Design the sequence.
């Protein structure tokens, strides 16, 4: 167990021409945790990931991954990480199996074929293993992409918006994979613009806004920053369903009875009041 | 890390060769246009062209046709490199602990293989059309050497185009002038039949010296000075194109 953080980012700045994308970003990621970088489009998430994965050089500041400086020892950093970019980086002409073998060979591992078979099974892609990746659905492609990232068991994985453009089912599959990774001790840095994704997965969440981290903490800590949940009463118009049921004389209780009035009453009263908790 | 250059290049070359095997049309398309030109020039224009030499017209123009084959074939290298850059797989490679130059060398070696296959197809068709040579093994090896050098020089130009292109069309557009150059050379008609300035250009551009060398090798005639001029052009273009490619690549990955 090392005491140093798996990822350390200190005062990173980056501009593209006149656009100041990152204006001094600082955070640490504890080894073996899931760290979510939350931000809207254009907040600089991808730029930061590209700097950490040695694809881009920062203008100022320092960052280290697994103790290696990203600018000074990019080779060692690349040995420790795996990047899953925003767009599934699979070779569409090759089959799923060939994609995995390719990466295993490039990581200079023994027995690439066995590694590929194993990962296909782990990601439920065995049946599709001999098909070209171009025939895969978005979710399958993403799974193959993540499987390719796991080859060689890098201690740190960067996932840049892993679920953007996926359907709900595929999203849940990706989430499952990420959780299992972290259980196995891998440090995961993921970027997302979906709040629920950060809420679901992350041990710590940092909010990147206009090039700086404006907040960094656990989900509980972030929630405490907000005013406590309060109860509000909001008028609820009857839905067409309520109207329909009232007219045809169905006496079944609608809704959940929060208001204490039945469906017919609600419809007859023209409006009903339902309570719902809302956090601001 | 550098110890893996050869291994990584081999793995990545294997990958792009697989791309070609799965779309063999790229080799066939590369061969079809030169074959069509060869048919056109031999059976339509050829009768009216006086080359001033006793040899058959197929023999006369084959060297130029081979250069056109390669010039159109390298466009696919720019195209494939551009697609890699677009698709994200390039970034995956860059973020992995592999020898960085392997990514480019794999494309270059693939281009070499594919173009040699296309050239072999064109030569086979030329043989059917009556191309004959008594060239010795050494002469054939010299022809192969010059064609390989030509392919490498043009492929590195294609790498520049592939790395700096903004669109798929832009990636392959660079090859049109290259395909056109042989027409303003000694490839199809003797240069002294051209008007002054055009003849001057034709005499002094690289294709003429390369074509004349290849023609002399096939005809078992002395290659004279042409071979040195041709080699100087080829090596010069190769070095410049390689240096520019590497500079662009460095800027891209830094």
Sequence:
């Amino acid at each position: 167990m090392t005491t140093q953080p798996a990822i350390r980012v200190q005062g990173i700045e980056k501009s593209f021409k006149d656009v100041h994308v990152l204006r001094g970003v600082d955070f640490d990621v504890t080894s073996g945790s899931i760290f979510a970088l939350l931000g809207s489009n254009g907040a600089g998430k991808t730029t930061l990931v590209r700097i950490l994965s040695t694809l881009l050089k920062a203008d100022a500041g320092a960052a280290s991954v697994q103790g290696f400086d990203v600018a000074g020892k990019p080779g060692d950093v690349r040995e420790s990480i795996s990047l899953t970019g925003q767009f599934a980086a699979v070779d569409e002409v090759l089959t799923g199996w060939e994609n995995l073998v390719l990466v295993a060979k490039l990581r200079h591992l023994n027995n690439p074929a066995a590694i590929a078979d194993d990962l296909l099974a782990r990601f439920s892609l065995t049946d599709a293993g001999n098909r070209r990746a171009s025939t895969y659905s978005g979710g399958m492609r993403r799974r193959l992409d993540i499987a390719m990232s796991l080859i060689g068991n890098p201690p740190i994985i960067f996932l840049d918006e892993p679920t953007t453009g996926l359907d709900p089912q595929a999203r849940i599959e990706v989430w499952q994979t990420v959780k299992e990774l972290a259980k196995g001790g891998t440090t995961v840095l993921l970027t997302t613009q979906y709040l629920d994704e950060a809420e679901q997965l992350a041990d710590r969440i940092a909010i990147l806004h206009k090039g700086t981290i404006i907040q960094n903490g656990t989900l509980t800590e972030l929630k405490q920053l907000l005013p406590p949940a309060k109860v509000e009463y909001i008028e609820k118009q009857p839905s067409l369903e309520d109207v329909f049921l009232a007219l045809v004389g169905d006496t079944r209780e609608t809704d959940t009875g929060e208001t204490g009035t039945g469906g017919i009453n609600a419809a007859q009263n023209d409006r009903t009041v339902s309570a719902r908790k809302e956090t601001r | 890390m550098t110890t893996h250059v050869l291994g990584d290049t081999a793995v990545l070359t294997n990958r792009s060769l697989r791309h070609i095997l799965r779309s063999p049309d790229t080799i066939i398309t590369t061969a079809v246009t030169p074959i069509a030109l060869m048919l056109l020039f031999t059976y339509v224009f050829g009768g009216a062209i006086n080359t001033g030499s006793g040899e058959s017209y197929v023999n006369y123009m084959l060297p130029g046709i081979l250069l056109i084959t390669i010039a159109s074939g390298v466009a696919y290298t720019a195209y494939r490199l551009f697609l890699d850059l677009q698709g994200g797989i390039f970034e995956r490679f860059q973020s992995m602990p592999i020898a960085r130059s392997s990514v480019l060398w794999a494309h270059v070696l693939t281009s070499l293989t594919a173009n040699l296959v296309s050239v072999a197809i064109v030569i086979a068709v030329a043989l059917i059309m009556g191309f004959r040579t008594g060239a010795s093994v050494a002469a054939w090896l010299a022809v192969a050497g010059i064609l390989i050098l030509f392919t490498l020089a043009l492929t590195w130009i294609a790498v520049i185009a592939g790395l700096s292109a903004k669109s798929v069309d832009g990636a392959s557009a660079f090859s049109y002038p290259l395909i056109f150059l042989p027409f303003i050379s000694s490839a199809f008609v003797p240069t002294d039949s051209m008007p002054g300035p055009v003849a001057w250009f034709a005499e002094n551009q690289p294709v003429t010296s390369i074509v004349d060398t290849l023609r002399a090798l096939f005809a078992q005639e002395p290659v004279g000075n042409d071979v040195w001029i041709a080699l100087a052009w080829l090596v010069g273009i190769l070095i410049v194109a390689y240096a520019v490619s590497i500079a662009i690549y460095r800027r891209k990955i830094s």
In short: Chain B has a mean pLDDT of 87.
